[in-house]
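Minutes, project check-in
Item: structure for the 301-residue chain
Input as provided by the requester:
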Amino acid sequence: MDSSERVADSSHRREEAVNAWPWVVRGKRVLPSERTLVMGILNVTPDSFSDGGSYANPRQAVDAALRMIEEGADIIDVGGESSRPGRAGPVSVEEELRRVKPVVELLRKESPDVLISVDTYKAPVVEQVLDCGADIINDIYALRFSPETGNLVVRYNAGLILMHMQGTPETMQQSPTYRDVVVDVKHELRECMDAALSLGVPEETIAIDPGFGFGKTVDHNVQLLAGLEYLRLLQRPICVGISRKSFLGALLGGADVSEREEATIAAQVIAVLHGASIVRTHNVKNARRSLAVVDAVMKKM
């Protein structure tokens, strides 16, 4: 399918846009919701591109998470390994657990009701964080690194986010190529969904993420944001992680990470207008306030 065929599908997609696909996490239906879900990013890494090294211990990390919850976060996404482009390589299971597990345990104790997501793709990490209270696994490899993650998600009745990535974090920005980025991402996510379903993962527990910045040029990211609504044909909630991404800096003429907040807000608003139900972001307060307006308007559309 090419761009002209996507245009022909537009009326069908607009009709579908009035429906929010269900997302069930730990047996609880969290989507559809009266508002866009905001997922606050909590990186407990020394080298993440935006906030690496911000938290010296679990107490500091959980305090930051509690502030995000006060600002309106529905989900806290804990990450123990940077996936920034060109990273040196993955960390060991032991090191990732050392960073992540105490944070999940303490956050679950102090905030029993918040949804906790863990950004990981390693099955041994998945098992331990689900066992100590995490609700969602946010897998940048979409089960391709470790299919066993799918079995663990089933066992713990957890939510699963399948993200699109071309290549690996080490190689993904080395000349990424697509025939049509929107169509290709949709087809590859469909394949990942089918693989998850074949492992017994219930469809209603799956959300999808098009993977902004993961194996995509600036133009690819812009095209993907413009055509995001097409991914609704997969009939799964769409999660977007656009916050402070490098393509936004490029669109601003090379703006540093600290200067991308206005562009982040604009991109997040566009994403929700085009069908996203979950927004993964660094600045929860700004996301919640801007999306409150979007949510109110969309109820009248």
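Outcome recorded: Residues 93-110 form the longest helix (18 residues).
No further action items on this chain.
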